[in-house]
Write a structure and sequence with these properties.
339 residues; alpha+beta; Immunoglobulin-like; Muramoyl-pentapeptide Carboxypeptidase, domain 1; 5-stranded antiparallel sheet; 4-stranded antiparallel sheet; 7 helices; globular
């Protein structure tokens, strides 16, 4: 009987200890250091959950997945998303980045009925890539007059201060108020078929969404600064260097000599039901050209399929609503036809 009691006591102690063990087994994780929640709209209501994520550990971490839920006053889930816009996913110790979610709100009539949310960010130790940041200068231009209306712009000048060409440049910009609250996030991507040569610069100027700007004004937000990260991914420590001689400068015109070739881009076929970053890039490009009117949420639904068909018709391609390799090459080409 004593042995049985001792065994039961041991099992009980183990059960109590398990959560602590499980928590320890998760290892180092990224930390959410800032988060802001915005809900606005009239006929259609959306929420924007913005967050700054920091690597406060001493190991390299990858921003992996995330999820969020929005709730009404009765605790009902009125918005949910696992589609997370994430940037600079590979963070070395001391680095930070931004993420956001943008789900549609259902089951309420006005934005003020959405009263709370929860947020989950998952990360893991990963050193396969590093985030190589480029020099940049970013300014916020408030109330720029343009005829009978005005716009707010976020303008960034990115300079390639590396010794090599950089492809697939991504820019993420967080507009902050005087307390560091995240008011707004936007992004741009040059995609892998375009290069920024050593020493050259590109200026990216994008207007804020007008209705979202009005929402921020109504809430009393005042822009104070912009935190910008302009980056490419490096797969080896010596892929990008600074202070040396750029490869393009050593052999003269390397396009003619054939010593440098353009990076070949391959595209994954996307269709209705597809999800992820590739879908987001597709949607962003469709929005840039005027084919997609809804939000770029990383989910290939009816709206995206309709936009793809519209582009295929305009480009003289088979109108099947499937974003295959030929369709995506035409879409991301510099001379892609606008809507």
């Amino acid at each position: 009987m004593k042995r049985l009691f001792a065994l039961m006591l041991t099992l009980a102690l183990l059960t109590v200890a398990l959560p602590a063990w499980a928590e320890e087994a998760q290892g180092p994780a990224l930390t959410v250091t800032r988060e802001n929640f915005h809900v606005y709209g009239t006929k259609t209501i959306y929420c924007y959950l913005y967050a700054r994520v920091d690597n406060n550990t001493d190991v390299p971490l990858k921003l992996d997945t995330g999820a969020m839920n929005a709730y009404d006053a009765d605790g009902n889930v009125v918005g949910t998303s696992t589609s997370m816009w994430r940037y600079a996913e590979y963070l070395q110790p001391g680095e930070h980045t931004y993420v956001y979610f943008n789900p549609r709100i259902e089951g309420v009539e006005t934005p003020d009925q959405v009263v709370k949310y929860d947020l989950e960010i998952n990360s893991r130790e990963d050193s396969r890539k590093t985030t190589f940041c480029l020099a940049q200068q970013t300014v916020f231009e408030d109330d720029v007059a343009e005829g009978s209306w005005s716009n707010d712009y976020i303008t960034t000048t990115v300079t390639n201060d590396a010794d090599q060409n950089v492809f697939d440049l991504t820019i993420v910009r967080a507009l902050l108020d005087d307390k560091g609250n995240i008011m707004y996030i936007d992004s741009d991507n040059m995609y892998s078929y375009k290069a920024l040569t050593p020493g050259s610069s590109i200026i990216v100027r994008r207007p804020m969404n007008t209705s979202f700007r009005d929402y921020l004004d109504e809430k009393g937000y005042k822009a104070a600064s912009v935190d910008c990260i302009a980056y490419v991914y490096a797969t080896s420590p010596d892929q990008y260097t600074r202070g040396g001689v750029a490869p393009a400068a050593e052999g003269g015109d390397q396009t003619e000599t054939g010593t440098e070739t353009e990076a070949e881009t391959t595209y994954v076929t996307l269709k209705k039901g597809s999800k992820g970053d590739d879908v987001m890039k597709l949607q962003q490009r469709l929005k840039e050209l005027g084919y997609l009117k809804g939000n770029a949420d990383g989910e290939y639904g009816k709206g995206t399929e309709k936009a793809v068909k519209a582009f295929q018709k305009r480009a003289g391609l088979k109108q099947d609503g499937v974003a295959g390799e030929a369709m995506q090459k035409a879409l991301f080409a510099e001379d892609a036809p606008a809507a």
